Amino acid sequence: MSEDDNYKIPEAMPIQTENIAFDADELVACAKCQRNNPPTRLNCFYCGSELEIAPENRDRIRPSLRKLEAWEKGFNLIVEPVAAPDIVAVARLVKLEPDLVRNLFESGKRLPIARVESAAECEVLQTALAGLGVPSNPVSDEALAVDVAPRRLRGIEFGDSGARFILFNDDSIVDVSPEDLKIIVTGAVFEKAVEATEKRKKGQTRMLDATETASDEPLLDLYSGNDASGFRITTAGFDFSCLGSEKGLLARENLKRLAKRLAVFAPEARVVDDYLSVRELLGEVWETDVRKDSQGMKRSSFGKFDLKRVSTSSNLRQFTKYSRLQRHIL
Question: Which of 1, 182, 210, 291 counts the most CB atoms within 10 A of its CB?
Answer without folding.
Answer: 182
